[in-house]
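Standup notes, protein team

Yesterday: finished cleaning the Dipodomys ordii set.
Today: Alpha-tubulin N-acetyltransferase 1 structure.
Blockers: none.

Input for Alpha-tubulin N-acetyltransferase 1:
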Amino acid sequence: MEFPFDVDALLPERITVLDQHLRPPARRPGTTTPARVDLQQQIMTIVDELGKASAKAQHLPAPITSASRMQSNRHVIYVLKDTSARPAGKGAIIGFLKVGYKKLFVLDDREAHNEVEPLCILDFYIHESLQRHGHGQELFQYMLQKERVEPHQLAIDRPSQKLLKFLNKHYNLETTVPQVNNFVIFEGFFAHQHRPPAPSLRATRHSRAAALDPTPAAPARKLPPKRAEGEIKPYSSSDREFLKVAVEPPWPLNRAPRRATPPTHPPPRSSSLGNSPDRGPLRPFVPEQELLRSLRLCPPHPTARLLLATDPGGSPAQRRRTSSLPRSDESRY
């Protein structure tokens, strides 16, 4: 793939590694150095054109590799340059390989879910005119040595049939583990544990500060156990003792007999939410005859006894005998 600028001067090595910053690599001594902004713009042009060519070869509706995508993700792209052919003295690009770490949920042989973060093959393209010349294997092997991984430890995102045949031919990767996502993993993927993600900078600082600080940590305060909450009753049905105490009426009203039969029409209950507690039945009014009978049966007061003893009319027994005589006899005397 040819470009209108000098690719050989822009990318001095045969395989150039570009990260998300898309900065131009260090230049050879003795070469002229153009403006830095122009070099970065040329690198972005190369990445965009390679992404378009890869999408066209895979029949994709839109490119999955571009300069804007590279700058927004922590991916790495390996660019292979043609050093033999120098059309117009500017060089050419053979292909590229884009990789990156992704957090995935994959299934193992027992169909159990596993959270891993492997190195993934995200895009791979070799120019159609230079395929079957060993350039793809050269680029792929360089990436394996640079990233220090084995072929069966990789996860491939939407691999084409050409890529699957390439992996089977050069790395003997044939048996796949079925997945529910678009990634393909091969047998032996779970043979090695994948490297966990690096801890954050803040967590590293806190751990270092805790290791350097000799001050012992304060003991943790032990909180009292929480009491179990009892059943909460509504206010209207709660127990109120002062309503349950029956007030005893004064004497002699407390001697009046109570009615044995309940009233035929009980008092209406409150229609509000939660009725008030039931009060005891009220004592009925005492009739006048019962009140007089109870007064006759009461013992006389000491003062009344003294008055009866000093009465010249005689004793009470004599008065009862005289009062029991018929009226005709009393009128004689």
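Follow-up from PR in the comments: The domain at 7-186 is CATH 3.40.630.30 (Aminopeptidase).
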